From TrEMBL, chains A, B:
Domain (GFO/IDH/MocA-like oxidoreductase) ranges: 140-261
One Pfam family matching this protein: GFO_IDH_MocA_C3
InterPro entries: Gfo/Idh/MocA-like_OxRdtase_N, GFO_IDH_MocA-like_dom, NAD(P)-bd_dom_sf
Name this protein carries in UniProt: Gfo/Idh/MocA-like oxidoreductase N-terminal domain-containing protein
Length: 362, 362
């Protein structure tokens, strides 16, 4: 008989909107459950628990310090504003709680390195909450991109992620508040574009980042819209655009010598249960260049669980292996997160340096 | 009874591969016919006429000078290598023949200006042979982009056009020969990307062009693959990638505050009789951000005639109005062509200046 996977007991630190979606995902994942919620106000935590149907007996705390003392919490989901990540993520892992950290994970790589070092020292699992990485569509697309006969060599990548912030968002959302999420749209939507580019490039850091001129900022100087170009010394190129001022779109185009991948809903699929993408290979101009030999093929990938539940399930599987078998933490997620941050930092530096090219750190 | 549109009598100067497609298009257009073909070798012209089913009586010439003397030719289609355009396009219009000029139209805007000035002085119609401009899909997409409630304000544009050159192409095609088409992929595939960006921006020239680092060149220094960013001082941005080293793709993404347009076959539709695009408006995250309110809608636009025949038809209509009614030449095509060349020149200058930003001329 197969061993039962242990159920990972989650605490949620902060009642952000995104915590509604992730607490549902923790409920859907077969190897995870929510046991505690903390807010700076205990009533807010209690309301969150009842409003979103969390399990009976979920403990409510009125401070982040208190939830850290809860020995029944194995892992913490931390959706706090980015400026609070350094303090509370480090405090979490110092209590030997595994860390599922909302993006953007840190204001800069120096801060992130302190979080990641704390994870390593304390032997806890780290993962950033980039949900689309866990959709089976993502694995299916990677399979195609990894096939030399169907995709060939990577040549270029483009990604765009935008959504239109309404008046309330523009006035008060944490993502446009310089004290809470100073990276603005670059840390939010841009995070996904950069992750998509790294994902498509096999996580090879680009050599250079150049931000495009005239990014849009609010009065406090927080980025509302920006774009950048990333280049590798071997000639591969990538571009991305992210915006709070543009209608929703979530695009990745990955162009190889032998094939091309396109999708326009990579961050959050149009619907939960299945997700499309298009791929074309071995095409070209037909006879007389009157059309194409074959058009792109539409693929649809179904999923039993939404991508955020698959994320929680994978995180919890890794936590379970540490708990049950003494495995070491999986470092892949930490490395990917750090590379994403390095590119964000380089793009930010280029914006701050008058759009000069910036070498991407390592 | 409606007046019969005059039939415009075309000469074809040079038997390039693309002339096969365009001579077929001249045959399909109801107001055009081929009457003469010139090559540097009369047998090549004769072979072209018989191999591609041109009308009986089509005259064959063994030099470009001779076809210019043919008074039965109203309009010339010129698909010569770019380095020959200045000489032969000017010679054509000085003979008061209307000019349908293959792209890239010139090696630089100074050369193009000499061609365009000759067109104006001689009162002939000019059009560059950018076929997709004439597909009814293009008009349908423009209608959506022009609708403030469905598209809103333009925020960003991305375009990509690539196709994979085979060994023969890389060794001997005019598009990679420094003496024939010195602009390489920038003048060929890049022409379309830049035109798409200008089209989407209402032909407002960007203020600045910055080429991306590490474009690929062949041994003679001809561009095989390159990318660039274009920016407007009001914050609009565009990026494009063009390549002879990448699988076929023909992408435009146009992102507005209220809607987004996507297509991946803009240069040559997958098939002749209809062409798709996708458009989304008034969408956003659904309740709980578990999906989208509405996914993009797929539109399919049918056409009776292929886009290149519609191009010939429109060009011939304009020529007919000059011939029959003494109308002045339509300047729109000349202006669009010149703007496209200005952006090409700026991108080329940025590549040649170590990827520094270059102000787009006017």
């Amino acid at each position: 008989m197969a061993e039962q996977a242990p159920i990972v007991r989650f605490g949620i630190m902060g009642c952000a909107n995104i915590a509604i979606k992730v607490s549902r995902a923790i409920g859907l994942a077969p190897n995870a459950t929510v046991v505690a919620v903390a807010s700076r106000n205990v009533n807010k935590a209690l309301d969150f628990i009842s409003a979103h149907g969390l399990p009976e007996g979920t403990r409510a705390y009125g401070s982040y310090e208190e939830i850290l003392e809860d020995e029944g919490v194995d892992a913490m989901y931390v959706p706090l504003p980015t400026s609070l990540h350094l303090k509370w993520a480090v405090a979490t892992v110092e209590k030997r709680k595994h860390l599922l950290l909302e993006k953007p994970v840190a204001l800069c790589v120096a801060d992130l390195d302190r979080i990641l070092e704390a994870c390593e020292v304390n032997g806890v699992q780290y993962m950033d909450a980039t949900m689309w990485m866990h959709h089976p569509r993502t694995a299916k697309m990677k399979e195609l991109l990894s096939d030399p006969s169907r995709f060939g060599q990577l040549q270029s990548i483009h990604s765009a992620f935008s959504y239109r912030g309404d008046a309330k968002f523009m006035a008060s959302d944490i993502r446009v508040n310089v004290d809470l999420d100073a990276l603005g749209v670059l840390g939010d939507a841009g995070w996904y574009c950069i992750r998509a580019i790294l994902w498509a490039s096999g996580y090879q850091l680009p050599d250079t980042a150049v931000a495009l001129r005239n990014p849009k900022k609010n009065e406090a100087g927080v980025l509302l819209s920006c774009a950048a170009a990333l280049t590798w010394d071997d000639g591969r190129v990538a571009t991305f655009h992210c915006s709070f001022l543009t209608h929703i779109t979530m695009e990745i185009s990955v162009m190889g010598s032998e094939g091309v991948l396109n999708l326009t809903d990579f961050v959050i699929p149009y619907e939960e249960s299945s997700a499309p993408f298009s791929f074309v290979s071995n095409s070209g101009f037909n006879n007389g260049s009157l059309g194409w030999i074959v058009p792109p093929e539409k693929h649809v990938v179904s999923t039993q669980l939404p991508q955020e539940a698959l994320m929680v399930q994978e995180f919890s599987r890794l936590v379970g292996e540490i708990k049950s078998h003494g495995f070491k933490a999986e470092k892949k997620w930490l490395e990917i997160s750090r590379k994403t941050q390095l590119v964000i930092d380089a793009v930010k530096a280029s914006i701050d340096n008058g759009f000069e090219p910036v070498q991407v750190g390592n």
